[in-house]
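My main concern about presentation is that the manuscript never shows what a single data entry looks like. In essence, backbone conformation is discretised, so a fold becomes a row of integers matching the chain in length. An entry of this sort, consisting of the sequence and the corresponding backbone structure tokens, reads as follows:
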Amino acid sequence: MGTTEPEIGGLADDRPLLGRTSTAERVADILRGRIAEGYFPPGERLSEDSIGKALGVSRNTLREAFRLLTHERLLVHELNRGVFVRKLAVQDVEDIYRTRRLVECAVVQGLGEPPYALDRLDAAVAKGERSSREQDWRGVSTANIHFHRELVALAGSARTDELMRGVLAELRLAFHVVDDPRRLHQPYLVRNRAILEALRAGERTGAERLLEEYLDDSRTQLVDAYADLVEDEGDA
């Protein structure tokens, strides 16, 4: 059965949304990156006027970008108060790690036969090691995030990349609360290197085992530290 004229006319009415949605998505990309980098820490209120003026976008476009990031659980809207960067609960952190384990380990398991395209993963490892030597602990944190992003990118799936982009941005909300990047990330640099070298040697099963242990240890460390901070904040 063919498409009727009224349906075509109704679709044409949505044409203006294309440009606005595209702009809103670009604004959301910018804000997502800023949140992930700690420019907007958890609990901070986002000013529509200041951000809209800085980016040169309309209030409607900015509100749509806020809506997209709220859907990704990076922002929350509080009635009569505004939009805030989300504060995670301990259960959120645990769920993020469950998702990471499912996705990252599945990517490694499904890599197929070597050799693998490891240049970008290698660059992330090298950047973390260089930042550590320079005692740039936030740089170490960022390099670690890039390591896991590039690891997932080995799957060659735009959908998986998009999923992990949101998951890792959300994870950094917890990192910013703990705010001790050296303790959180430096011990894992050698483990990043070990995973990389296992993949370079074509040892996919060994790399998957190393990754599972890595994520389990990282989850335990972060959840324990985060739980202590959330408890202290509740007692304050």
